[in-house]
Fold:
Amino acid sequence: MGSATDLTERIRKLEDRHDVARVLTLYGRYADSGDHDAFVSLFTDGAVIRLIGGTPSGAYGDVAEWIGRERIREYIDDPTMHMKIEGRCMHFPALNLTVDVEGDGATADSYSLVLLREQVTTTIYGAGFTHWRLVRREGRWRISERVRVAIGTKPGG
Structure:
């Protein structure tokens, strides 16, 4: 039988995994609802978003990257990309999610999918495989890195 310390540690890891999954779910919810302030607050100051295989809108090349909260704010505010679909999209950033937690750091891997409503049809706007890194700061999990590789793209770009 495990000790109380072992049980406490197991519960803590389960809670951490749940909290990490919640952050990733909020990523999609905030993007879809247009809550850009809340979206940016999910990231650390030096966070990175890297999209290998480009952006679904085609607004950027084969590898698009934003580093730091200011640039991530530009990413979510971009009229040629996210703002072009906001209000008509549904992000699923954490499908088939796996989460590993070690202390105040976590990694997660997931499928990501974006649906887009166009007139009377809903289509797949983007899909890929995402690797996430998160850190716990001041008791809160934040995203430090998101790397999405579009389906049909090799991870090297």
